[in-house]
Amino acid sequence: MTTHITQNTHSSPSNADVDFPRARPMESSDEIDLRELFSVIWQGKWLIIAITVVFAVGSAIFAINQPNIYKSEALLAPVSADANNGGLAALASQFGGLASMAGVNLGGGVGTDKTKLAIEVLKSRQFLGEFIERHQILPQLMAVDKWHMSDNRLSFDPKLYNSETKTWVRKVKPPFKPVPSSQESHKEFLKILAVSRDKETGMVKLAMEHQSPFIAKQWLDWLVADINRVMKERDVAEAMRSTEFLKKQIELTNVADIRAILYKLVEEQAKTIMFAEVRDEYVFKTLDPALVPEEKAKPKRALICVLGTMFGGFLAGIIVLIRHFVRKEI
């Protein structure tokens, strides 16, 4: 046993002779990089300050030159259509099957959400195009340069519109023309018009923005009046066409029950026309009318200056770092 142990001792190296790799202290590359980063930024501090000041001054000039925009708002309540459709709905539930035998559909149009329909009509190209043409507001929409508060006067951009001759002088490439098209005016109008509907209450809020607070209020009043008029005219025209059709059906049938239904339908259409004629606020009832705003809605000049200055400082820091590492690689 002793000899075996001795041989093993001589044949195997001792722990002292084994060359284990020594643990080296970890070098914090992140700390070195941060020190180098701050050092580079400190060395280029004057360039950073200069670029930041340029952006600060530029953003201040840009903010000052932006015109004030005023927002006028109106709160509208949808007018219930129960008065118009109540009798027709009762007839549909009572005599729907019998009327269908005569080729008359009592359910058509019942339950239609007139509020959604009116909102979509309000934002449509046809409605807004006719609105702009009717009120002759195309120059005030697309060529205003400045609103003068002292005398409530608008000045127009001479590169776009000649206010003395009332002609468009803007230079555009085909297919555009000097006079803005209905598509152009429609896009421009949607930029200053906001329509929102509360899902819980159903209330509709209209908002109009313009450099002139008086024009913003006036256009909003015109919009409410025009959409009520247009929707009323659509329903009256439809009721009149339905009445003509029903009268023809009365002449063609000899069944007493069907004739009775058709006469009641004619009566309901007459009620629709009557309600439309006596009600100016046909689709929307004004709860909170538009007012001339006293304070501007935008621009937020302080925010523009702060964001411009921050962007300038960030860009300057990036430039300094890129310049340093490019020189280092060379």
UniProtKB/TrEMBL annotation:
Domain Tyrosine-protein kinase G-rich: 286-324
Bias (Polar residues): 1-15
Domain of life: Bacteria
InterPro entries: Bact_polysacc_biosynth/exp (IPR050445), GNVR (IPR032807), LPS_length_determ_N (IPR003856)
Membrane topology of this protein: Multi-pass membrane protein
Transmembrane segments: 46-64, 302-326
Major localization listed first in the record, in broad terms: membrane
Keywords, sorted A to Z: Cell membrane, Membrane, Transmembrane, Transmembrane helix
Pfam families linked to this entry: GNVR, Wzz
Subcellular location(s) per record: Cell membrane
Region (Disordered): 1-23
Domain Polysaccharide chain length determinant N-terminal span(s) in chain numbering: 30-133
Keyword Membrane in annotation: yes
Protein name stated in the entry: LPS O-antigen length regulator
Species assigned in the record: Shewanella sedimentimangrovi
Lineage: Bacteria, Pseudomonadati, Pseudomonadota, Gammaproteobacteria, Alteromonadales
